[in-house]
Amino acid sequence: MHAQNDIPKAEILKGATIAFDLDGTLVDTAPDLVASLNLILAEEGLPPLPFDDVRKMVGRGAKALLERGFAAAGAPLDADQAPVLVERFVALYLGRIAHESAPFPGVVDALVSLRAAGAKLAVCTNKLTHLSVALLDALDLTQYFDAVVGADSAPAAKPDPRHLLATIAAVGGDPTRAVMVGDSINDALAAKAANVPTLLVTFGYTEAPVETLGGDLLIDAFSDAPSACITLLASCGRRNAGL
Ligand SMILES: O=C(O)COP(=O)(O)O
Ligand SMILES: [Mg+2]
């Protein structure tokens, strides 16, 4: 289902929690992630990977990206190497965290309007928290969020629902009045298991087609996010009322 234009009232946003995924949803981070992965592959004497292949591998955190990247480069990581290489990757990535990364079009306006309507905004990402904060700071986005909960700050990472529930709790929110905005299967699964409606962007990072991920609503542009959140909050209100 795509977002409709016949929007219920915006008051429903007051006090609601909107939890956003970061990579591929708020910020187009693929250029710096791919560059960092290719730098570490070069350090290890391996060939670079094509941009489009790596872009789809983002969404389960740094360790998973390295595991998938090294496997694709023909040199699967062994358990002993992984911690050192993850640490090196994180250092390389931090050094170029926002060289080419930028918010997707319409993100800032959408965050401003959601906040103005009284929503609590949070970031729920499989990125490490310190990388997430560094990225948001570099792009001047930190000011819009009441909490940033990376994978290392949650009891378990997405697709585990505890990541999303911990994020909602971090802003003093109510899971029955919340929306998860994401781009990948991890976001959709975490939200479904937490019984929170899922809004998926169609321009993010996913291996399977976004239409197959089980999102409750899809948007092609971030400018549609506020109205889509209103629609989803209204539908969870009806669901909670047993209608
Ligand atoms: O894979 C990552 O680093 C992050 O992912 P997310 O912000 O899409 O959860
Ligand atoms: Mg993502």
From TrEMBL:
E.C. number(s) listed in UniProt: 3.1.3.18
Protein name: Phosphoglycolate phosphatase
Source species: Caulobacter rhizosphaerae
UniProt record similarity statement: Belongs to the HAD-like hydrolase superfamily. CbbY/CbbZ/Gph/YieH family.
UniProt cross-references to PANTHER family, sorted A to Z: PHOSPHOGLYCOLATE PHOSPHATASE
Keywords: Carbohydrate metabolism, Hydrolase, Magnesium, Metal-binding
Catalytic activity from the UniProt record: 2-phosphoglycolate + H2O = glycolate + phosphate
InterPro entries given in the database record: HAD-like_hydrolase_sf, HAD-like_sf, HAD-SF_hydro_IA, HAD_sf, PGP-like_dom2, PGPase_prok
